[in-house]
Amino acid sequence: MSSVYHNVLKERKPPVVDEIIPARTAGAFTLKKGQFLRVIDVMGKQVSDTTYYNLHNLKEKSCPGATEAALRTPGRVSQGIDFYAGKLTVGNKILSTLFNPMLTLVYETPAPGGTHHLGQGRMCSRWWFEKVAGEKGRNGCLELMAKALKDGDFDVKMEEIPDPITFFMRIEINPETHAWEIREPWTRPGDLVELRAEMDLVAVLTACPWNPGTCNALNSKPIRVQICDEPDPNMILGL
Ligand SMILES: [Zn+2]
């Protein structure tokens, strides 16, 4: 007597939002609590800076510092986990300026080691383009986010935009100088991260325009955003 087991992948319902953020632009999206945000590196080696806002109180926003603080809890330190994580991985939550959970990272495909960074300084901007690249008047992620918020009628001014949570960015410590260095991203075409919204929120994402350096492998490319109502039925979340 024999048994036959069928391991059939269940199909996920199509996303309710499926948009391309063209290279060197940004987009603003609303998510309800429980929805899933998928950020897809369409062509590979492209960074997306992201910020998040409580839909019902836009002054409460994502905070790399609070997120990092939660990763430094005594339990983690006593387990020998690095005091300064600097990176997000599956199970980690993005916290707000009030330490409320905004999103949980539930799935990621990029190479091990993590490529999603916290608190590595201000996102690229006109200031960066002028000071570092000598190019005047080029919009960075900061200006692109401000425009996306304005176009979406969200009352957040440029100076109120927090430092970003940066997906697909590869920053490593140089063992000789002990300095953080930006390197070419690991990501392959189609690599993605998926986050579950823990509150109703506004998500602002860029297809980072920075191309003087290795951050985007010298070429600005698009980012794809999908929003799903339900989790992937094949995924065991438990988070
Ligand atoms: Zn940027």
**How many structural domains can be distinguished in the coordinates?**
1
User: Which structural class is indicated by helix and strand composition?
Assistant: alpha+beta
Instruction: Sketch the major β-sheet.
Output: 6 strands, antiparallel
Which range best describes the helical content: under 10%, 10-25%, 25-40%, 40-55%, 55-70% or over 70%? 10-25%
The total of beta strands comes to 14
Hetero ligands: zinc ion
Please compute the radius of gyration using only Cα atoms. 18 Å
Could you state the order of secondary-structure elements as H and E? Answer: EEEEEHHEEEHHEEEEEE
Our measurement of the CA-to-CA distance between the termini, rounded to an integer number of angstroms, reads 39 Å
Name the strands of the widest sheet in spatial order.
1-14-3-12-7-6
How many helical elements? Answer: 4
Low-confidence sequence ranges: none
What portion of the residues fall into strands of 2 or more residues? 25-35%
- From the spread of the alpha carbons, the general shape counts as globular
Give the mean pLDDT. 87
